[in-house]
Amino acid sequence: MVLPLENVSLSSHTTMRIGGSARYFISVHTEDEMCEAVRFAHKNKLPFFVLGGGSNIIFPDSGFLGVVIKIEIPGIVFEEHGREIFAHGGGGVSWDALVAESVKHNLWGIENLSAIPGTVGASAVQNIGAYGVEVKDTIEWVRAYDIQRDIFVTLSRDECAFAYRTSIFKKSAGLPTAPAGQAGKKLVVMKVVFCLSKNGIPNLRYGDIAKYFLDRSPETISILEMREAIIKIRAQKLPNPQTLPNAGSFFKNPIISKNQYLKVQNAFPGIKGHEYLGKVKISAAWLIEMCGWKGVRYKDAGITQKHALVIANYGNASAHDIVHLSECITRDVFERTGIALEREVIII
After folding, report:
1. pLDDT (tens digit per residue) in 30-51
2. What is this structure's pTM?
3. How many CA atoms lie within 13 A of 168 on its CB side?
4. Taking a C-beta distance cutoff of 8 angstroms, is the pair 325, 250 a contact?
5. CA 39 to mean position of chain CA atoms
6. What is the DSSP letter of 11?
7. Residues 6 or more apart from 211 whose CB is under 8 A from it?
8. Interstrand relation of 21-28 and 5-9 (parallel, antiparallel or unpaired)
9. pLDDT digits (tens, 9 = 90+) for 60-107
């Protein structure tokens, strides 16, 4: 049976360390508890929000006047099928714990996604990606709770509708219990199954990785060396949220038409972009830095010197401070370049 806690501070449940209190807070460790938590919200006619690791969320300073349901479903299991291994990860498992365990078993496929904060469940919701890899490329199927029908369903990779930093799980179903534009999504991830390989090839397409292994041939690079390289490269570029509270990449990299890219390129010859599904993906970090925002502070909210895509809490920043700074950046970049930045971080 789930035990709702009252007036729980949300700042300690997010990597940004910001937010007021939740009216009710429920941790769920099983599918039955998930059902109970949602029914509790429905019974009390309260909005609810499903929380993973809190690495991509900013709660308001006023808190959340409803039920925050934190997914803590455990478990990592490997199943062998010929040359393929299926890794089953509970929705509440730390994403990097799954990567580390896979690497320990010498299984290729998700090593380039090492050191990304968050949970296994959130990896599918967000379709996380880094260093030339998106998690959708390894996902076999996902078990989810359909809130509207009160049943559990299994979705294949194609049914998950994965795209750049999104999926079917990220789209709100417009439930009456959901706060405007956020939360209460129709499908909540309970478990994700990944198809990994015993005989992988190092993915060195990303520039920093290729540079790291410049004097090595791919066949001599072990999966453990790949993981260690990714962790070192990330540490050089991105601040650790445990020492400097942040939510990782605050904005998505814009995807624009080739014609728009050529126009922007004429005005800004140094712009960084590469072809992506017939369009061009632009470096949001480059745009922000080019517009002079790297290192800029607003009260205790600030763009880090380490990476222009990261907005951090330098002490006692409020949710309002973070949002205000992000809106100033978005407006300025659009006025200068005509490119609209879209937040990757979810503002509740």
Report:
1. 999 999 999 999 999 999 999 9
2. 0.90
3. 18
4. no
5. 27
6. G
7. none
8. antiparallel
9. 999 999 999 999 999 999 999 877 899 999 999 999 999 999 999 999
Task: Tell me whether residue 225 is one of the annotated catalytic residues.
Answer: no
Give the closest residue to 57 by CA, choosing from 73, 47, 68: 68
Instruction: Kindly state the DSSP code that residue 343 receives in the 8-state scheme.
Output: B
- Name the active-site residue from 143, 165, 234, 343: 165
b/e string for 332-341 if b means 16 or more Cβ within 10 A?
Answer: bbeeebebeb
- Is 249 annotated as catalytic? yes
Neighbours of 99 (CB within 10 A): 26
Q: Looking only at Cα atoms, what is the longest distance across the chain?
A: 62
Q: What crossing angle do the helices spanning 223-237 and 95-104 adopt, rounded to 10°?
A: 150
Query: Strands across the sheet with 151-156, in order?
Result: 76-81, 84-90, 187-197, 139-146, 151-156
Across-strand partners of 197?
A: 84, 108
| 86 C-beta neighbours (distance < 10 Å), count | 16
H helical segments located in 197-318: 207-212, 223-237, 258-267, 284-290
The residues, any chain, with a CB within 8 Å of residue 149's CB and separated by 6 or more, are none
Is residue 205 part of the annotated active site? The answer reads no
> For residues 188 and 51, is the Cβ–Cβ distance under 8 A?
no
> Region 164-192: what's the mean pLDDT?
67
What are residue 269's phi and psi, to 5 degrees? Answer: -55, -25
Residue linked to tokens 């260093």? 131
Query: What is the number of alpha carbons within 13 Å of residue 147 lying toward its C-beta?
Result: 27
- Cα 324 from Cα 339, distance rounded (Å): 19
Other beta carbons less than 10 A from residue 91's beta carbon: 30
Q: Which of 27, 102, 249, 326 is catalytic?
A: 249
Does residue 85 contact residue 105 with C-beta atoms inside 8 Å?
yes
Question: Which residue in 115, 38, 114 sits closest to 71, CA to CA?
Answer: 38
CB 208 within 8 A of CB 137: no
Tell me, what amino acid is at 157?
R
